[in-house]
Amino acid sequence: MLGSEDATEALCERAIASGLAGKLTKSLMVKLLQAVRIYINTAPLPTVINYVDKIMKIIVPLTKYNNDAIIKAFHANEYLTEIITALDILSAAVEKSHPSKLWETTCFTVLATGINLLFTARTRILQNWGEAIRGDLLGLLVRMSAAVSNTKDLPDMQLRGYELVRYTLSHLLIHLSYPKVVKQLGEYSHIRNEKLANIWRSSGKMPQKRAVVREEIPGATVCDNISCDVMKRPKRSWICSRCVTASYCSPRCQAEDWKRFHKSECYRAKQDEIAREMTHTRYRYSDRHFQMSWAQIICNDSLPLFDRDQLGRQAFPDHKPYEIVPIVDCTGILVPSTQVFPESLRLNPRWWVGLEGCGKEYRLVDFYFLYGSAEALSLLMLLKRLPGGFYKVAYSIPRRGVRKTTQGTWPIPKSDYDQ
């Protein structure tokens, strides 16, 4: 059965239909590790290579199915780390036997199949890189490249292997700016070979030229949505702004993955959720809509007075009143107070530059609210001036933060310490 592609596909479909896909994946990983850690010491090396090759020919088709059990099994158990580790052990044994055998057809096919899982598996590509590095992907690539003595006039198999190593390293360099990949590289052991260490040190500077690398080296689509079938590389990417560990090719893929997986696995989102549950302050759309409507009324009453106020002209003589960003303090109980903090605004001249081109048609106002016992909320709003002279909220950005409180600063009444 293992030698037939049709039989392998039938086996995978039967396992998925019967709900045994997760168990089949686990059993294959156990057999793979047994082959490289136990059988490699007792069985002939070609037999072990053929056995691993047949196991990989079942694992690879399994990863191409959009099946939750298989995806969760790879995600939770870090199977890609085990696959790369197994291939690294196998390549070390082959190199010890004879380095040139790394480029024999069967051995190269096994190594290439495992490395290609980095690009084809329906799991998160950044997680793939992290798991592969933990499985000593760099050691495997170095071992394969060291077997190539000269890049000129290479046989077909060695040329393909050299291109695979180059292609994989190029992608690794492209993804070095992502925290999850950098963290794993930081835990990677140092390369002892001085020549290889020099190459790695020079390659480590490549993230500084990431834009250039993306232009010169063709890259695969970086999208953590497992249902994404886009094959061409997008012009830009979208990254989760909270944890910065998930990347997508489009807003549609980001929204789809957020509902399916990332909302439950984003550690920053979990921290926010726990904090809000503890303080019983969940910021809902209805809260935001009420604050926007209330702030719109305040602005229509206060902005004309603010424009005539000499405080703005005295604080910023080089700017017109409508170029200044008023900060409305709504932390009081009854009446909000409109204030301008010159030191704060001088640190943000980009607001002036953005507003100068808009003229009197748009205003930028920042509202501060108390939210719960330990949090504050900043609602930055862009107001558009209507033909009748009234302002309407065109866009708003809410930002939450921990409110700093200082204990022991309240004045003590004289009656308390004069007695």
UniProtKB/TrEMBL annotation:
Transmembrane segments: none annotated. It comes from the Eukaryota. The keyword Zinc-finger applies. This is MYND-type domain-containing protein. PROSITE patterns: ZF_MYND_2. It comes from Ephemerocybe angulata. Keywords: Metal-binding, Zinc, Zinc-finger. One of its GO terms (molecular function) is zinc ion binding. It holds the Pfam family zf-MYND. Residues 228-266 form the MYND-type domain.
